[in-house]
Fold this sequence. Notes:
54% of the residues lie in helices and 8% in strands. By secondary structure, it is mainly alpha-helical. The protein has a domain at 39-98. β1 (25-28) and β2 form a beta hairpin. The longest helix has 14 residues, at 71-84.
Amino acid sequence: xxxxxxxxxxxxxxxxxxxxxxxxxxxxxxxxxxxxxxxxxxxxxxxxxxxxxxxxxxxxxxxxxxxxxxxxxxxxxxxxxxxxxxxxxxxxxxxxxxx
Length: 99
C-alpha cells in the first residue's frame, strides 16, 4: 500500500522487480517531490530486456558513465530473462559494452 493513498500495488511482484524497488534510491527533487530511481545496473537490465536500438545506445552510455557496475548482477538477471523470453543472445548482445 502506498502511503497517503488507497492504492494497493502488491500485485504479483516478481523477484527482480521486488529487488529493483528495494535497491532503488530516493532523490528529493524539491520540497514536495521525491522520485525513486533504479540503480544503473537495474536500468541496464531493463534496457537489455527491451532491447530496442535506443536502449542499446543507453546501455553504452550508462556503461561509460558508471565504471564500477555490478556486472555479475546484470549478467545473472539478463541471462534469466533471456531464458524466459527465449532470447539466448540477450546477454551476448550487451556483454562487450560492459567491459
